[in-house]
Amino acid sequence: MASDLLEGITASAKASISVILVLVYGYGLRKFKFISQEGESNISHLDTKFFLPALLFAEIGPLATASNLGNYWPIIPLSLFFQLVALTVAMLSHKAGMPQHYVPMFIFNNVTSLPLLLINSLAASGGLDSLVTADRTLESIQKIGRVYFLINALVGNLTRFALGPCDFFTQPVNRPLMPVSTDLMKTHESKVWFSSYHEHYTEDEQLLPETGPGEITLDDDQEPPTVKDRIIAGLKSAQDWIVLAINPPLMGGLLAVGFGLIPWFHRELFGPGILSPISDSISNVGKLFSALQMLVLGSHLYSKKGTKTKPFFLVWLFTYRFVIAPALSISVVYFIRTTWPNLIDKDPMLDFVLAMSNVGPPALTLSAVAIMAELPSDVEGQVSRILTVSYAVTPLIAFPVTIALWMTRQTGVGS
């Protein structure tokens, strides 16, 4: 186990250093004015609204087949379950005083670049040798491991860009927690109540006058709202939330799933068919996202100073992401494998990926989510700093990696 731990520390440290160095480059480019303030803003929005949707389309499309979703089904419910647990922990922490912008950092870990880099490093150093079986070589389990991690990334990316902006949008800035459309304001003028979740606002920040939780003040000559008025208000509120949730990255992922599940499009678009130049061009554009996003994140470290965060919040975040989350995922996989051994196919790499699917630092793309949510500059700067620190402590992932490999051997699935 000592050798496994050393290999895990080496692999995760390399992954951390590669990320942090790019952040340093971005910081230097901004400091020495190679990137202007306007350029930083333009790159941020271009990255979020164009390069990221292209990346998700290129990554998700080839994997979005009916057979893949059928063969790899355990990844989907377990990934959603781990996110639900993280959401519960994050919301309870928020109720206890943790800032709202920490919530997505509990839920969404790095599910793409770090796991893929980690699995390559482990294969090169011999860390995956214990997962080799009689019918699978090291090369084949490395390949299937990448597919498993990408299926997990598919789930993580879709939920992140569907729910991430909503998590961030509850910041107590000059907008309602629940978006209010112009039509909805007009509906209010027609004597309709609307719940604005006003507990986050000071008296000056209230957009609508109130007399109690969720009630709109009515003049003496106004009548209470009818059932029809309430339904209209609810539908318009739902419409606003849909508009908020359907963002460019999510659209890129949904389009990839849609085209991937149609056999003709999957073959012609994501295979060697007549539409392959389109997917190739989108893939080339998507590859620009990661480097540019990390450069912008490093630039934010210089331009957006950010407010100070309490060390306790950081310790709690990292304790969850590197200790509690892996303890949960490894325990769940071990329990399923020992209690219902035939529930899922016996596959050591599947066990390893399920155990690690919930582990690691917050996703770098949360900085893009923060931009989409239009957070105040100081909060956005704090998000950038938290993400940077989280990658500085990423070598901690070596411990859950070692335990996950040990678990696969104990269940008798490995060699």
Automatic annotation (TrEMBL):
GO CC annotation: endoplasmic reticulum; membrane
UniProt topology in membrane: Multi-pass membrane protein
Domain of life assignment: Eukaryota
Segments crossing the lipid bilayer: 12-29, 72-92, 241-265, 314-336, 352-373, 385-407
Subcellular localization: Membrane
One BP term from GO: transmembrane transport
Protein name in the entry: Membrane transport protein-domain-containing protein
Organism: Mycena rosella (Pink bonnet)
